[in-house]
Design goal:
mainly alpha, Glycerol uptake facilitator protein
């Protein structure tokens, strides 16, 4: 199989896994709280990074891909292929989560709006503020990815550091915004739920967080032993 095709398929499957598990956990979050969402996302991310990292680098997030693109870590054609794969995987996962939530009567029990979307208390009342929080949390996530994985400072424990960063960010921001930190994670369930009202703002701020992190860690916080490398 073509190398880029294989990498793209790994991104599709990994993103599907993240959005499916994350979305399913969020459908029960009203009963179990934000801790369930944090653990669900963080733990599965650790697993899929170990599972697919050798195929694609394990982005599973268009904002991560954007951050690596601006830092010169991947080529444009690779980034575009990854974005297509990531959004396809997320959309499939979003509609599957909705179908299972409906089958279990979840929509009737806790509100038809809960199909695993990444929304919080500020999404409808203070959307720009929610976007700023998403920007900050995404910056944290992509920063961890750069230092631990891209620059290899955590070795084989990089996936653990990345998963813990995502889990901690969801604990911090889940109540306020849903703590997406991932344009695909936002779009897939939003499409399935039929509510795109908040999506453009979320996508702008999340992508911006990834891009700014990529620039900061490429041009300001690049380790000394990396400066002579291409």
């Amino acid at each position: 199989m073509n190398t880029l095709l294989k990498a793209g398929f790994a991104e599709l499957l990994g993103t599907f896994t993240l959005v499916f598990v994350g979305g399913m956990v969020v459908t029960i979050a009203p009963q179990f709280g934000v801790i369930a969402a944090a653990l669900g996302h963080g733990l599965v991310l650790i697993g899929i990074i170990y599972a697919y990292g050798h195929h694609s680098g394990a982005h599973f997030n268009p904002a991560v891909t954007a951050g690596l693109l601006v830092g010169g870590k991947i080529k444009v054609n690779t980034a575009v292929a990854y974005w297509i794969a990531q959004f396809i995987g997320a959309i499939i996962a979003g509609f599957l989560v909705r179908s299972f939530a409906d089958a279990l009567g979840n929509a009737a029990e806790i509100g038809a709006a809960n199909y695993g979307q990444t929304t919080g208390a500020l999404t409808s009342s203070a959307l720009i503020t929610a976007g700023v929080i998403e920007f900050i949390l995404t910056f944290f996530l992509v920063s961890t990815i750069y230092q631990t994985a891209v620059y290899g400072k955590a070795g084989n424990l990089a996936p653990v550091a990345i998963g813990f960063t995502l889990a901690g960010s969801i604990l911090a921001g889940g109540f306020y915004t849903g703590a997406s930190l991932n344009p695909a994670r936002t779009l897939g369930p939003a499409l399935a739920a039929g509510d795109l009202s908040y999506v453009p703002v979320y996508l702008i701020f999340i992508f911006a967080g990834g891009v700014v992190a990529g620039l900061v860690h490429t041009f300001m916080l690049r380790p000394d032993d990396e400066k002579n490398k291409p």
